[in-house]
């Protein structure tokens, strides 16, 4: 009778390769099925208002990359009214389909009852296309889409609800008694920015001066800082989207990886908030070590008088995510 032979034990190298493949496969499933739908709110207090001013709660959303039928994302956006924001800022990349404008409007419906302002990103103007992932680390050419999206319809729908299009505009509004100056540029990532249209000192007479840009390109942040803005809001980076436990691999723009999401100081006087965004390209439906997020920025009065008053070290003021969902 023939004796069956036991399969040979894998070598240490083979075992390590197998474990690596298993870990990668687990990460892929986790990032595709769970992490990219694991929405959170990042809340930060920014003591940048003049003493005696009422606090202002700004909800910053970005990079929805909406497709029709995305119910979990829609439910999360609806839940954000629980944060009691005074004002909403949307820094673009709302669309991932030419049929997505109704889906965006349904998702934003409760927030559209609040004052708001927006700028657009490249994924409001042009449909997403598959890209070589190596192009994000400088290897291979980046393809760009030329298939137009219905951004005019989206702009009309948002402005009909009272949100202000800040693209190449400078305007002011008073919310909760806080006098806000807002200015914005078109997406610098596609070199559509014309800062000259809003250039000039932000000036006194406002409690806070806010600059909007989809992509946080240094040339735009430098210009906002030089003109005396207090806060710049941007998206675009997706927080790195496919990150390692040690952090982002790329920012997909001119800022360094330490600023890929969250609050950082820029230049002389500017605070920068980069949103990790709420979506992803339909061709890269994955996030790892980078939850999709909305930001609640609670602007509060400075502790002491004058713009030169030191601002608290902001990363340490970042709070645990709120339980939303
Ligand atoms: Fe985006």
Summarize the structure.
InterPro entries: Calcineurin-like_PHP, Metallo-depent_PP-like, Metallophosphoesterase_sf. The chain is globular.
Instruction: Let me know the average pLDDT.
Output: 88
Give the proportion of residues in helices.
Answer: 10-25%
Provide the CATH top-level class.
Alpha Beta
Structure classification: alpha/beta
- Inertia-based shape: globular
Major sheet: 6 strands, mixed
Task: Report the radius of gyration as a whole number of Å.
Answer: 22 Å
The CATH topology turns out to be Purple Acid Phosphatase, chain A, domain 2
Strand order of the largest sheet: 1-12-2-3-4-5
- Beta-strand portion reads 15-25%
Order of helices and strands: HEEHEHEHHEEEEHEEEE
Give the distance, in angstroms, between the N- and C-terminal Cα atoms: 64 Å
GO cellular component, one term: membrane
Domain Calcineurin-like phosphoesterase: 56-239
Pfam families: Metallophos
Region (Disordered): 304-325
